[in-house]
Amino acid sequence: MDHYSATNFRLTQSIGFLLTKARNLLSAEVDAGLKELDISSQQMGILLSLQRGIAATPFELSRLLGIDTGLMTRMLDKLEARGLLGRSRSVEDRRVVNLRLTTAGETMAARIPEIVPPVLNARLRNFSESEFEELKRLLTKFVGDE
């Protein structure tokens, strides 16, 4: 089923526009909340993914977080320079770089769950529990991760 046509398409009512606006609002709010840690929401994604074992290489992080490899490399460089993560070559395949959090990185990652939930809850304050679950379900369906 086609939901858009040349006659009914309106930029500010399109899913792409609304998703981008929502993402930008949320990123700015999370970034403001993370200011005390001096990290961005994208860097938060890296730290938490490594901490929780969801990803262990730059490629896995790029794919998981939807960040191009060039930007990923720059962010990893910054986090490494700050002493939050380390890189090492895989013994099995020298082309693969494995990432690990340092003690400082683990400490920082452990602080994120204290900071971000209140920011998210403030944005979601007008959603009922069922609306919240439906939003998550629909977004999961939209991105194809069902």
Automatic annotation (TrEMBL):
Signal peptide: none annotated. It holds the Pfam family MarR. Keywords: DNA-binding, Transcription, Transcription regulation. InterPro entries: HTH_MarR-typ, WH-like_DNA-bd_sf, WH_DNA-bd_sf. Residues 12-144 form the HTH marR-type domain. The keyword DNA-binding applies. GO terms for molecular function: DNA binding; DNA-binding transcription factor activity. The keyword DNA-binding applies. SMART domains: HTH_MARR. PANTHER family: TRANSCRIPTIONAL REGULATOR, MARR (PTHR42756), TRANSCRIPTIONAL REPRESSOR OF EMRAB OPERON (PTHR42756:SF1). This is MFS transporter.
